[in-house]
Write a structure and sequence with these properties.
With 288 residues, the chain is an alpha+beta fold. Helices cover 42% and strands 18% of the residues. The strands form four sheets. The protein has a five-stranded mixed β-sheet. Strands 1-8-7 form a three-stranded antiparallel β-sheet. α5 links the parallel β5 and β6. α4 crosses α7.
């Protein structure tokens, strides 16, 4: 895989990163970064402690039960991280229209601590005009950044210009395991929509079996990505196939029920024509 597909040199000043970080000249090795990222697939994530944009504690495990999209950014970047976040926002908007905001969650995590504070993350979200109800901007404690990023397989290296880091969105399943890593600066709806749809489709039907819930379920199964519009649309051909299959199944049930009723009526007519059955003969007494 080409270097540009995995990570970019972030040529943007980040203010104060510390003299030690600025002194680091090592570049991020894309092959090593890719191996670390892919090695995380299938890993069950630890219950990391973070702070939300209001400074309130939140546990990573609190997002379990729904698919989760995780993006690592740093707020001091003014080119690539904003671009990737806007791209993610467009993809999330498209996915929300298809699946609903209550079906999945999104988090952006600021890894440049202590500078990516809750206040900085809140300002970044406002600047990106992200106010989705299912999207949180989180700050890990500085001491836990290394453990958190290693858990996700996220690699980054400080440089004089900012950071080299992997451009990825981690797709986490409802059980808290990394399901897939999606790479790139610009994310299309299908790049995230396909793994998200698989996760939602493979979940068992919810207890809610109302007509509205069933319609949403059918809509989930019968949507396809339209590359021309960059959005998901309903695949009416598949919808007709599902409807046709259901109609055929109902017709077969109706047919067999009709046959059963016909046979039952026929047996009753035969019994009525034959008259009442003669009582059995009394047993012959035994004689000695």
């Amino acid at each position: 895989m080409k270097r540009s597909a995995l990570w970019l040199w972030l040529g943007c000043a980040i203010g104060a990163t510390g003299s030690q970080a600025l002194a680091q000249q090592a570049a991020l090795d894309p092959e090593v970064a890719l191996r670390a990222s892919q090695a995380a697939v299938g890993r069950e994530l630890a219950d990391h402690a973070l702070l939300d944009a209001r400074g309130q504690p939140v546990r990573l495990a609190s997002y379990r039960g729904k698919p989760l999209l995780v993006s690592f950014i740093y707020t001091g970047c003014f080119q690539v991280c904003p671009t990737t976040t806007r791209s993610l926002s467009e993809a999330v908007d498209a996915l929300t229209r298809v699946f609903g905001a209550d079906k999945f969650n999104v988090v952006s995590v600021g890894f440049n601590q202590p500078f990516d504070s809750p206040q900085a993350m809140r300002a970044f979200a406002k600047q990106m005009r992200v106010d989705a109800p299912n999207w949180d901007f989180l700050s890990p404690p500085p001491a836990s950044v290394e453990t958190l990023t290693r858990d996700f397989g996220f690699s980054y290296v400080a440089t004089p210009a900012g950071f080299d880091h992997v451009l990825t969105v981690s797709v986490v399943d409802p059980q808290g395991r990394i399901y897939q890593q999606v790479y790139g600066e610009r994310l299309s709806g299908d790049m995230l929509g396909e793994p998200l749809r698989r996760l939602l489709r493979d979940n068992p039907l919810p207890a809610d079996t109302t007509l509205d819930a069933l319609v949403r379920r059918v809509r989930l199964v019968c949507t396809v990505y339209d590359a021309k519009t960059g959005t998901y649309r309903t695949d009416y051909g598949l919808l007709f196939e599902v409807a046709g299959g259901a109609t055929f199944a109902l017709a077969m049930v109706w047919f067999f029920m009709g046959e059963w009723r016909t046979q039952r009526r026929l047996r009753r007519r035969v019994q009525a024509a034959a008259g009442p059955a003669a009582p059995p003969a009394p047993p012959t007494p035994l004689t000695s």
